[in-house]
Amino acid sequence: MTRLTVNNEAVEYRMPPETPLLWALRDASNLTGTKYGCGTGSCGACTVDVDGRAVRSCQLTIAAAEGAFVTTIEGLSRDRAHPVQLALIAGNVPQCGYCIPGITMAAAALLKRDPMPSDAAIRAAITNICRCGIYPRLIEAIQRAGRAVRGDERLPAAPRPGIEPAEAARMVPALDPQQR
Question: 102-135 burial, b for 16+ CB within 10 Å, e for fewer?
Answer without folding.
Answer: bbbbbbbbbbeeebebeeeebeebbebebeeebe
